[in-house]
Specification:
Blueprint lengths: L2 H11 L1 H4 L5 H9 L6 H9 L7 H8 L4 H5 L5 H4 L2 H19 L1 H5 L2 H14 L8 H7 L7 H26 L4 H9 L7 H8 L3 H13 L11 H17 L2 H27 L16
Helix pairs in contact: 1-17, 3-8, 10-12, 10-17, 11-12, 12-16, 13-15
Protein name: SalK
Organism: Streptomyces tateyamensis
Pfam family, one: HTH_67
Length: 288
């Protein structure tokens, strides 16, 4: 089982989790709790598994958000909705969003149930050491419904890989904003305007970080990656692959191939049914 096979599998599993960040059902559930749309709801939904954490913990684990944006909402948001309420609302939102984007027939299918069990089996090889977001989500109960089981498993695989990715970024000596800019420059992530807006960075802060990257020879005059920048981003992805490989090694070549096949079909359905907005990502890979 190659590292590339693991990455391909992750790339089709992850949208089954990440659709929750764009689902109108999520905003409906969270605003019903009194949370504001946008950043406050995002921070609440993703951080709730860690409990009533402060702004510093969220900034440290989310990495590429402006800490000033986080501090405007955390920890105040926990006075509006307790983590337990947020987690329950998030599951309700996922269930409703899956009904819209997958439909009742797919949700009841043997293939979806098989994908859920394969992904959950893979997650058994995830280790919590040095992975705070994964560790927090791993302590949550596994839902009973197949669709929610699949979403939970995709969440574990996402946060496990994501925590390792932050280690790779630290090793590359990229701060949160530099990591965000260099990733958008690959053409595989957020469009720059969307990245600045959702992560809370000003044009001045963005420009200053671009200058820092240019001083290292990673960006050229027009904001594109230099050869050295491309090599660094490739090294980061390869290290992330190595740090995230354990779940896919556990499944083995046949299991990875089967999960990739099943999740690919399910992700295609979610995308076709409007799970992700236009004008946000440079490519489909940006969702992943």
């Amino acid at each position: 089982m190659t590292l590339l096979a693991g990455r391909r599998c992750y790339n089709v599993v992850n949208p089954l989790h990440s659709m929750v960040y764009f689902a109108p059902e999520t905003q409906t559930e969270f605003t019903a709790l009194g949370l504001e749309r946008g950043a406050m709801s995002y921070f609440a939904g993703r951080a709730a598994a860690m409990g009533r954490v402060g702004a510093g913990v969220v900034a440290g684990t989310f990495y590429n958000f402006n800490p000033a944006l986080i501090a405007r909402h955390v920890p105040a948001l926990w006075e509006i909705a307790a983590p337990e309420q947020v987690l329950a609302a998030r599951l309700r939102a996922v269930a409703a969003a899956q009904q819209r984007t997958l439909g009742a027939e797919l949700l009841a299918s043997a293939e979806l149930a098989e994908a859920a069990e394969l992904a959950l089996r893979a997650s058994q090889a995830c280790a919590p050491a040095g992975r705070p977001l994964y560790a927090a989500h791993a302590e949550l109960a596994v839902p009973e419904e197949p669709g929610l089981r699949l979403w939970h498993a995709a969440t574990l695989l996402r946060e496990h890989r994501g925590d390792g990715h932050l280690a790779a970024l630290l090793d590359a000596e990229l701060d949160g904003l530099e990591a965000l800019i260099s990733h958008t420059a690959t053409g595989k992530g957020f469009l720059p305007e969307a990245a600045r807006a959702t992560r809370g960075w000003s044009e001045q802060e963005w420009a200053a970080a671009e200058d820092r990257l240019r001083s290292r020879g990673l960006l050229d005059a027009v904001g594109e990656l230099t050869e050295a920048g491309e090599q660094l981003r490739q090294q980061i992805e390869e290290r992330t692959d190595r740090l995230a490989v354990a779940p896919y090694q556990l499944l083995g070549e046949a299991g990875v191939a089967r999960l990739t096949e099943l999740a690919g079909k399910l992700t295609a359905a979610t995308v076709a049914n409007g799970a992700f907005p236009g004008g946000v990502f440079a490519t489909d890979a940006g969702r992943r």
